User: What shape does this take?
Amino acid sequence: MKKPIKRYTKLTLGVISAFSITACGSGNEQKPAPANPVVQNSQVNQTTMTNDLLKEWEGPYGGVPAFDEMNLENLYPAITKGIEMHLEEIEAIANNPAPPTFENTIVAMEKSGEALDRAFTFYSIWSSNISSPEFREIQGELSPKISEYSSKISQNEKLFLRIKAVYQNSLQDPLPDDQQRTVQLVYEEFAMEGADLNEADKQRYAEINKELSKLYTQFSNNVLADEENYVVYLKEDQLSGLSESFITAAAKAAADRGREGEYAILNTRSSMDPFLTFSNDREARRKVWNNYYSRGDNNDEFDNKDIIKQILLLRDERVELLGYDNYAQWRLQNRMAKTPERAMELMEAVWPAALKRVEEEVQDMQAIANAEGKDITIAPWDYRYYAEKVRKQRYDLDSEEVKQYLQLDKLTQALFYTAGELFNYQFESVPQGTVPVFHEDVKVWEVTDKTTSEHIGLWYLDPYARKGKRSGAWATQYRSHSHLDAEETVLASNNSNFVKPAPGEPALISWDDATTFFHEFGHALHFFSSEVKYPTLNSGVRDYTEFQSQLLERWLSTDEVINQFLVHHETGEPIPQELVKKIKKASTFNQGFATTEFLASALMDMKLHTTDPEEIDMATFEEETLTALNMPEEIVMRHRTPHFGHVFSGEGYATGYYGYLWADVLTSDAAEAFTEAPGGFYDETVAEKLVKYLFAPRNSMDPAEAYRLFRGRDANIDALMRDRGFPVPSEEGSEE
Assistant: This one.
């Protein structure tokens, strides 16, 4: 989940999305934006000021963004001026009288748009990390302009003819591998985006993109509004079951919102999840659950159902111009799955086993509720709560006890240890004030090679939830690696929404949150390890890019990490081995819930984009689809449709949410390569192949081929099923 990759096609089709430059959205009509004095003044000053957001980055480490000097007044003129500058560069390339070559066309495009890319870095920070009503107003002004700019590039006929000529020549006279891959990716992207359409269809294509850009912004801002507006405030007598650290953080969150003496449960996953797990107050659990899962679905000004219908209709119309039957067919052609049918085949292979496991989990939970004399039927707001009771009963494992050993600072050191062992990286804290940051919570480390001391880049960490920050966790790049003219080092960031502790208290997080922390750091390591020359090769294949980060999750539960970094926050004592055994023994616990809530969202994503949108009634489609899938009543989709930002605040994950499962097949299979090796998860030979074939190449080779080079064969589903404790198809009927 990264910021928009600069240059030409990477800024088209709403790739500038919730996971790049907008927050992670309804209104069914586009109203003229109200007059904005900030925007108006910025427009006036555009040609008379030197805009700090466009300037080359200065300072140490090859230059860094001046986050401490960000001025929202400069944003509108920076983006519009940057667009103007980039379009001039593109026109110069398109109208070059010399015959098209890789250097004067592809390389020239790779080098273009630097100033705009810098401005988008600041845009992404305002959008994702420090959003405000003032920013959102400017964002509404800019979204259609950004879409128009993208269309002017992707539909530039002269430019495409030059790209096509270079591509066709390369088929007759192949270029070096990395150049061939770059040409192929650029050509295919332009072709997918309608470069070969007639003029009338090009115009409609551009109009659709412009309309979509507005809808994506509305969608994401609507979700953010519901996250900010719906806070559950509790009194002291409603805190039963909650940990002291959670209560302290909730008190601070309430005080920060002017509700001293109360306790605020924020409408984010990091607050919702532990509350639903431990709160003894069933009515409060129901309220917190309802707030969280009704985001974008409250039939008010922030309702997203109508906006989703418009998005689906426009996406369908756009791909119809290109000759595709549905949006999923168009989108998946350059993914590892290739077709929606193959993606569905994988999901449908796992779905029955997940449903069967849910049935077993619910039976166990209902038995405990009955034994307690509770006259209830397990409901969605009970699932986490009673699952925790089952965990304690079956494995004698208390998640709150585990949490006492999961300190954010120590886990950060665990990340560094893992990176050092696998990648030979060293992380050194950068003294405060050396590198500008956009918020006091942000910390920065320098990354170097442990052997040569070569500078690799900087790692920024923004760990805590706050108003204006989109929910969830993500990784992004402020600068990606390339060495076209000179070596450019990486500026990467990880962003989380952990509950900020009270002053002087440690930040304690759940095992799930710790796993996510490792996951997102895997993206950062993917950024840092890049060895590509051309920026386009830093792009990712959506159902492959989650693989590297999902794989890194496995190192959290290695003995080396557990024994060194999981220590009690008060006593400093290492986590007891008996507790470690319980954690590992319970590793497949609740996999019915985890798999089903995810797969329901992934299946919904695919169903929405393979069904004629004219036939979709947004008020009933979700419920009807889940009923047809036999979705258990006790579970809700991980991301319900009205707040499914992966899919509707942009296009990065649209029909691509299945990609997490596709990547998990690779992850489980690759993890077994380590378990089979003499050195286990720290085996030097396997680690060397991991970096060489699966991290450093980025998108410079076909992902399937890269995996075969690492593993010696293709991945199969068996390891995934073993990991989740499900029956393995190839082993069913064999002797145990």
